[in-house]
Specification:
By secondary structure, the protein is an alpha/beta fold. The protein folds into 2 domains: 183 residues, Rossmann fold; 85 residues, no CATH class. It contains 13 helices and 16 strands. The strands form 4 sheets. It has a 7-stranded mixed β-sheet with strand order 7-6-12-13-14-11-15. A 5-stranded parallel β-sheet has the order 9-2-1-10-16, with helices on one face. Strands 3-4 form a two-stranded antiparallel sheet. It is globular and about 65 Å long. Bound molecules: flavin-adenine dinucleotide and uridine-5'-diphosphate (UDP). Uridine-5'-diphosphate binds next to helix 6 and helix 7.
């Protein structure tokens, strides 16, 4: 069996690794000049720089956690971002530290009383959009200061026009715990994500070709390979014939600063609408003091509208797009030779662990 894998991101790499392990010949083509997709990290000044935004690995799936440990050791990094709203600093996710900073409350009972008072305006109403969902979850003060500006920048539209599910990802806790995630396992691969993916692809049955775009020779590839695993945009595969799916793009501005410690935390979110970026990442804090003395690398992350040719970082999973995706998925079903996978091939807001799970599912069916 000869597999062509389009894209060397996590989905493609897991599939390639498993298929090769089963004795199959695998060719991975990648249009960028490096492997690892959006989890690509590059060493600068002795620090692993997350070139496409901060990536923290977290999962409750022991199978996934054990799987990635074949390729890397993980450090004990625990994501605990801080929000800057007009110069005031608030701990995230929403927990007793945040409530105490916001309202001066000290106990869970005091916090709950305040939250319940704030939620009153949504009492008895079913939240129909993100704004209503946020207010019914946490109340107006936190919505206005920590959610509204950030979310409207991130998604380029009003919170009243966004689906409620986006905000359901954010945990609300009545303990003094700044751990952003609820998962059982969390960390960052020591030595960077690129090294981890390199190991996944390190098999005599796997050949990787960089700077190679599937669309330059689509018909030839479809003719010559037994099976294709495609992890690019599903609408592009079909030449957008049913219409364009929407994506959000990002623009990253990376800068070297001549200080040891620029902001004191790996991730600081800027939740005010007026600041054009959503967050600043200081990469060395993912690695506990690693990196050259007197130097640090920071990245500002600017959300951007997506137009053809831009990097499609986030699928926009609203009703219109999900309906259109369902029609593309029907076309995909008819492509017996092609498996569509990953954030772009399945048009799903997957985290890394979910991408790995999705690849396991496909691999199990394919290689049985
Ligand atoms: P990708 O990584 O996008 O890989 C697809 C690959 O296919 C790319 O390398 C692309 O160049 C290539 N490709 C596309 N089209 C073609 C073509 N025509 N020809 C050849 N190659 C092609 N997840 C977490 O778990 N934790 C986090 O903290 C986290 N933070 C994130 C932060 C940001 C800013 C973003 C955007 C995502 C974040 N994620 C996070 C999600 C994570 O990045 C994804 O789940 C994962 O990287 C998706 O892997 P993938 O293989 O599906 O896609
Ligand atoms: N969010 C917010 N304020 C913040 C951080 C996140 O309102 O300070 C909202 C925002 O709508 C965002 C969603 O929560 O799209 C999910 O955020 P998360 O950081 O989990 O998503 P990521 O961008 O890392 O995929």
């Amino acid at each position: 069996m000869k597999y062509l894998i389009v894209g060397s991101g996590l989905f493609g790499a897991v599939f390639a690794h498993k298929a090769a392990e089963h004795g199959n010949k695998v060719i991975v083509i990648e249009k960028r000049d490096h492997i690892a997709g959006n989890i690509y990290t590059k060493e600068i000044d002795g620090i692993q720089v997350h070139m496409y935004g901060a990536h923290i690995f977290h999962t409750s799936n022991k199978k996934v956690w054990d799987y990635v440990h074949q390729f890397a050791d993980f450090n004990r990094y625990t994501n605990s971002p801080v929000a800057n709203y007009k110069g005031h600093m608030y701990n995230l996710p929403f927990n007793m530290n945040t409530f105490s900073e916001m309202w001066g409350v000290r106990t869970p009972q005091e916090a709950m009383a305040k939250i319940n008072e704030q939620r009153q305006e949504m009492a008895g109403k079913e939240p129909k959009n993100l704004e209503e969902q946020a207010i019914s979850l946490i109340g107006r003060d936190i919505y206005e200061k920590l959610i509204k500006g950030y979310t409207e920048k991130q998604w380029g539209r009003k919170c009243t026009e966004l689906p409620a599910f986006i905000i359901k990802r954010l945990p609300v806790r009545l303990i003094y715990d700044n751990n952003y995630f609820n998962d059982d396992y969390q960390g960052i691969p020591i030595g960077g994500y690129t090294k981890m993916v390199e190991k996944m692809l390190d098999d005599p049955n796997i050949t990787v070709k960089l700077n190679t775009d599937f669309f330059d020779k689509k018909d030839e590839y479809l003719k010559n390979y037994d099976k294709i695993v495609y992890t690019g945009m599903i609408d592009k595969f079909f030449d957008y014939k049913l219409g364009e799916l929407e994506y959000r793009s990002l623009h990253f501005e990376t800068e070297e600063k001549n200080v040891d410690n620029y902001q004191g935390n790996a991730v600081i979110n800027y939740t005010e609408a007026k600041v054009p970026y959503t967050r600043i990442i200081e990469h060395k804090h993912f690695e506990f003091g690693k990196g050259d003395k007197g130097k640090t690398i920071i990245t500002r992350e600017y959300p951007a509208d997506w137009h053809r040719g831009d990097e499609p970082y986030y699928p926009v999973n609203n009703k219109r797009n999900n309906n259109l995706y369902a029609k593309y998925a029907e076309l995909a079903q008819k492509q017996a030779k092609v498996i569509f996978g990953g954030r772009l091939g399945q048009y799903k807001y997957y985290n890394m662990d979910q991408v790995i799970e999705a690849a396991f599912d496909v691999v199990t069916k394919e290689l049985r």
